Amino acid sequence: MRSLVASRSLLPLRIVKTAARYSTATDANATNAKREVIRRMLYPPNVRNRPSPTGSWRPDVGRALQRAIPSAQAHETIERAWKLYQRHLRKKRDAELERKFECMRKAMAELEDIDPTLFREANKTEDPRARSPAETEALKDAPSAERRAIESRMRGLFPRELKVPTDTPSKEGWQHEWRPFDRPLH
Length: 186
Hints:
The chain is mainly α. Helix content is 58%, strand content 0%. This is Large ribosomal subunit protein mL40.
């Protein structure tokens, strides 16, 4: 019997439409039995009156807090210190963002002085979904995989086709023959 079951599992599965349409009560019972086993594994019945790491019933929370923080004043002091620390972090982040924004503003002002055409091109608002006539013509002749890759990529973003940076090199090495898709500019 086991060899018959093992050999059936290797064969491709064929589903008869009538069997899928009319499920029997034994199939429902088997499914319920599986769910019951999973439920018992996740939520064992012997942990009813004890704290559960996954459950919401924690009777010892008050005692644990009382042991860790003996008084309300200590708790308030810790809360105020934590909020002060968070405020300092927020101010540091805001100052760093302000510094970066100021550097970006200076760079854009310098670009405007050096080359107004490049400045206008850098600040031009563009619909990333819009396609130029040359681009739509090139997409007509492209294979479907290449067409999908080009259509899914938004202009100005890092290309998805490039290798994702990892800590270790891939087993296949670098793909030296890889070339980006031809994408006409306007």
